[in-house]
């Protein structure tokens, strides 16, 4: 469905010097350097999958999405969306995709949202039944009628984003590319947006590729994750597998009587070399251990042997921690891409 | 309020201008083309006459008038109208109300380097180009000095006119149309299309009353020595000064009204 | 299921309707846009009038002939203005602010999609109206009696002139794919087009060559005007070739620009 083969994008960036003297000198000469924003990445996303495209700022996420949507031509390598090379067959590609770039509007600036939708309906030749069904859905979930006849340029960010989201799904696209779709939305609307795309995926088999700074968007929508760092893919698989990649796991427990906290920490850290322990906010003790040295069973056994446990659980590693670790271990190249 | 507060706006105005070095070249091409149209047209009118022709201009005199009028237009192209209109349209203007500075003064500070850069990088080469191509009149030192003083007044008037044009953005989104109207009216009634002395009776009377005359015709009257003694020169400068004060006051009043409306509407 | 020409036309009509609808919503803007041209052209006509209060003829052209030429220059310009005004936005900010992408994600020709945002731009109506009035009035004053062929060619002449204007605009607007903003270049080209409102005979031969063969604005006004006034076909016969070549140059630059488009910003 979505395939990338050694996809690469280089940018030429003009060097600007800071300050007034800098501006004066660039008046006379201008230097360029090449920045590789996407460095030969390859991946394959199945039809109907919901994938989070994850990476630090400047990791080349947006650049990749721009190539997949046909906005930019790769410097080398290629990609296919629905069997079409997007930047070569722009119109064929455009018919079957929906796009949201949270930072940039694609609506008609001087027109109201209903007017914009009428235009989109014509442009994509949306059948009446589909249009009515989708509009009813947007009324229900996004309260789209509340936007009224105000020109788009006078809408607030949150209002505009609701319209952008709806516009990207109006023609029942086979694939949606959402780049930061929930900026400016409150919790209720975020929920609605997530429900909307999950529904499209469940009912129409819409393929979803999402980037978001809000990790709860990712957890609520995506099953799969594609992690890039320094312009390269560092993980391609399910979100679940990504979480299991955590190199440090933890166990949290409560114990009756026995040694004090300092004593307990000392006992754990000597008994389980490489592990660290500390008090959590709730007054429990948290043990963090390296995943390659111990299994959770091993750690639990140790705790059962040494403490009188009142309560004990092993929390799922959270996405943020995993990502922080993934970025750290990744190749730190081309971070200054500037076109992330 | 210290003048030093506004120095950063002067340098930032220059910096943003210098990022687009092609702007100077293009302003130059535009001005040269504009001057060429009028110069060709009017030189065809004066073709054949050796002594003073219509309006008492010599061929060299009328050419000087039209070329320097275009140079003044370049100096007055301080981009205040575009920038104010754009800030009003985008709503960025509301941010300016939060800053502890006067917005019109900020704009004035920011346009000073634009004026200087336009004068040096476009105005002077333009004048030199035409001096090579066609005969021009050389002014007396006194006339030249009066011209410089008068040009200083004219830049204040040009600033006010552009600020008012930009503030039209509060009323309409088509500020482009407003700017076109302004540009047309200014270039006609300042004397950039037709030397004002050549206008027929009622039109001439109208041009004499309007402030735009002070933007080109005034300084040019002094430059070409087309005035009668001290009284004539001070009449020209007096007209300029009167309009400069009047327009500054008008700007202050309208800006205050616009700002209070902004506060009510919250941007 | 490629969209056919008919499909594009239907869409154009619909979008034109949207454009007109927008005019009613922004009535003041519409009046200002059209009014701006009435004022500008009115003043230009006035300036020409002032010239002729001092001399009977300039470079062999009478007052009414010059007005006829001015009118001829406004008709194609107005027609072009009605449909391609969005090119100004392209040169000014669409590339610079990374907004251009939206034309690339629609299943419609990107150029069509771009232009359609400003179909029936109000400013064009003013030019067309003033141009028509000037041509008809000065034509009547000159006692012009066009032949059947001349009548038949009026519409093609205006159309080709508008296409030449559109091509020059597209060419300079497309430069923004390389230079991020090409507004100054477009302004300069527009300023050069102002030369076309006056007889070419006024100008230095080098300027005449520029206006005929480099930025062919002479073909939008001077060539048709001398054909309609004097029946001379020396220049006007090149009009189809010039129109075709201008469009070819502009469209190929536009295509190359599209393929190197880099959506800046994040």
Give a description of the structure.
The complex is a heterotrimer of chains A (340), B (267) and C (266). By secondary structure, chain A is of the alpha/beta class. Chain A folds into 2 domains: 2-243, P-loop containing nucleotide triphosphate hydrolases (Rossmann fold, 3-Layer(aba) Sandwich), CATH 3.40.50; 247-316, Alpha-Beta Plaits. Chain A contains 12 helices and 13 strands. Chain A has helices spanning 19-28, 61-68, 90-95, 113-123, 128-142, 157-169, 187-204, 215-221, 239-244, 261-271, 296-306, 319-329, and strands at residues 2-15, 31-45, 50-54, 76-81, 97-101, 175-179, 207-211, 224-229, 232-238, 248-255, 276-279, 285-290, 309-313. In chain A, strands 5-6-7-3-8-9 form a 6-stranded mixed beta sheet, sandwiched between helices. In chain A, helix 5 (128-142) packs antiparallel against helix 6 (157-169). The longest helix of chain B has 37 residues, at 229-265. Chain B starts with 6 loop residues before the first helix and ends with a helix. In chain B, helix 2 packs antiparallel against helix 3 (59-76) and helix 4 (80-90) packs parallel to helix 7 (141-167). Chain B is mainly alpha-helical and 267 residues long. In chain C, strand 1 (57-58) and strand 2 form a beta hairpin. Chain C has 12 helices and 2 strands, in the order ααββαααααααααα. Chain C has one domain. By secondary structure, chain C is an all-alpha fold.
């Amino acid at each position: 469905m979505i395939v990338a083969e050694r996809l690469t994008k280089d940018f030429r960036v003009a060097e600007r010097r800071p300050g007034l003297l800098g501006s004066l000198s660039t008046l006379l000469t201008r230097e360029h350097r090449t920045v590789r924003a996407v460095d030969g990445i390859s991946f394959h996303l199945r039809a109907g999958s919901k994938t989070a495209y994850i990476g630090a700022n400047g990791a080349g996420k947006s650049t990749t999405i721009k190539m997949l949507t046909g906005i930019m031509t790769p410097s080398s390598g290629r990609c296919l969306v629905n069997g079409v090379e997007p930047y070569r067959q722009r119109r064929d590609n455009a018919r079957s995709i929906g796009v949201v770039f949270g930072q940039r509007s694609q609506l008609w600036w001087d027109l109201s949202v209903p007017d914009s939708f009428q235009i989109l309906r014509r442009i994509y030749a949306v059948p009446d039944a589909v249009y009515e069904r989708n509009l009813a859905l947007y009324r229900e979930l996004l309260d789209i009628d509340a936007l009224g006849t105000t020109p788009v340029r006078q809408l607030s960010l949150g209002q505009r984003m609701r319209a952008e989201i709806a516009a990207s799904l109006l023609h029942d696209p086979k694939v949606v590319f959402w780049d930061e779709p929930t900026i400016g939305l409150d919790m209720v609307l975020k929920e609605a947006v997530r429900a909307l795309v999950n529904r499209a995926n469940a009912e129409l088999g819409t393929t979803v590729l999402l980037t978001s700074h809000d990790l709860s968007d990712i957890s609520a929508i995506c099953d799969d994750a594609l992690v890039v760092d320094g312009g390269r893919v560092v993980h391609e698989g399910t979100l679940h597998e990504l979480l299991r990649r955590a190199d440090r796991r933890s166990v949290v427990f409560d114990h009756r009587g026995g040694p004090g906290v300092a004593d307990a920490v000392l006992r754990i850290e000597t008994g389980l070399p490489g592990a660290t322990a500390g008090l959590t906010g709730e007054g429990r003790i948290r043990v963090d251990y390296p995943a390659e040295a111990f299994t959770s069973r091993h750690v639990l056994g140790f705790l059962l042997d040494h403490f009188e446990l009142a309560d004990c659980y092993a929390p799922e590693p959270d996405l943020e921690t995993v990502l922080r670790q993934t970025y750290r271990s990744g190749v730190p190249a081309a971070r200054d891409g500037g076109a992330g | 309020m210290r003048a030093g507060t506004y120095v950063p706006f002067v340098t930032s105005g220059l910096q943003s201008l210098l990022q687009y070095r092609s702007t100077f070249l293009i302003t130059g091409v535009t001005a040269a083309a504009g001057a060429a149209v009028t110069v060709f047209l009017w030189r065809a009118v004066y073709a054949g006459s050796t002594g003073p022709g219509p309006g008492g201009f010599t061929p060299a005199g009328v050419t000087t008038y039209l070329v320097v009028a275009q140079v003044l237009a370049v100096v007055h192209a301080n981009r205040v109208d575009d920038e104010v209109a754009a800030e009003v349209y985008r709503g960025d203007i509301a941010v300016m109300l939060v800053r502890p500075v006067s917005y019109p003064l900020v704009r004035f500070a920011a346009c000073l380097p634009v004026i200087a850069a336009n004068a040096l990088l476009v105005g002077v080469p333009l004048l030199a180009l035409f001096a090579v191509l066609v005969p021009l009149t050389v002014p007396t030192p006194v006339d030249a000095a009066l011209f410089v003083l008068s040009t200083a007044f004219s830049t204040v008037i040009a600033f006010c006119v552009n600020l008012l044009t930009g503030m039209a953005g509060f009323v309409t989104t088509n500020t482009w149309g407003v700017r076109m109207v302004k540009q047309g009216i200014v270039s006609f009634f300042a004397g950039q299309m037709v030397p004002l002395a050549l206008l027929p009776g009622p039109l001439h009377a109208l041009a004499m009353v309007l402030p735009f005359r002070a933007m080109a015709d005034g300084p040019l009257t002094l430059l070409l020595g087309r005035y009668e003694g001290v009284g004539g020169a001070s009449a020209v400068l007096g007209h300029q000064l009167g309009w400069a004060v009047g327009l500054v006051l008008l700007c202050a009043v309208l800006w205050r009204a616009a700002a209070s409306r902004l506060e009510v509407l919250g941007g | 299921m490629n969209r056919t020409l008919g499909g594009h036309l239907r869409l154009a009509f619909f979008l034109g309707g949207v454009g007109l609808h927008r005019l009613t919503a922004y009535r003041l803007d519409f009046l200002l846009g059209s009014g701006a041209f009435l004022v500008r052209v009115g003043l230009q006509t006035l300036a020409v009038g002032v010239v002729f209060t001092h001399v009977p003829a300039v470079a062999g052209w009478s007052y009414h002939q010059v007005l006829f030429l001015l009118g001829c220059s406004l008709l194609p310009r107005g027609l072009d203005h009605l449909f391609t005004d969005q090119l100004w936005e392209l040169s000014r900010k669409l590339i610079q602010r990374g907004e251009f992408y939206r034309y690339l994600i629609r299943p419609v020709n990107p150029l069509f999609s771009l232009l359609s945002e400003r179909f029936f731009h109000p400013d064009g109506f003013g030019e067309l109206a003033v141009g028509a009035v000037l041509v008809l009035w000065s034509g009547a004053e000159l006692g012009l009696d066009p032949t059947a062929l001349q009548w038949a060619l009026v519409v093609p002449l205006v159309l080709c002139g508008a296409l030449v204007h559109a091509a020059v605009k597209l060419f300079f607007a497309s430069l923004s794919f390389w230079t991020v903003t090409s507004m100054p270049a477009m302004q300069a080209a527009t300023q050069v087009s102002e030369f076309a409102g006056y007889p070419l005979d006024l100008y230095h031969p080098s300027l005449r060559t520029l206006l005929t063969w480099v930025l062919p604005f002479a073909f939008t006004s001077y060539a048709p005007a001398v054909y309609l006034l004097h029946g001379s076909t020396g220049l006007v016969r090149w009009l189809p070739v010039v129109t075709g070549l201008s469009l070819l140059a502009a469209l190929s630059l536009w295509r190359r620009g599209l393929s190197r488009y880099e959506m800046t910003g994040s």
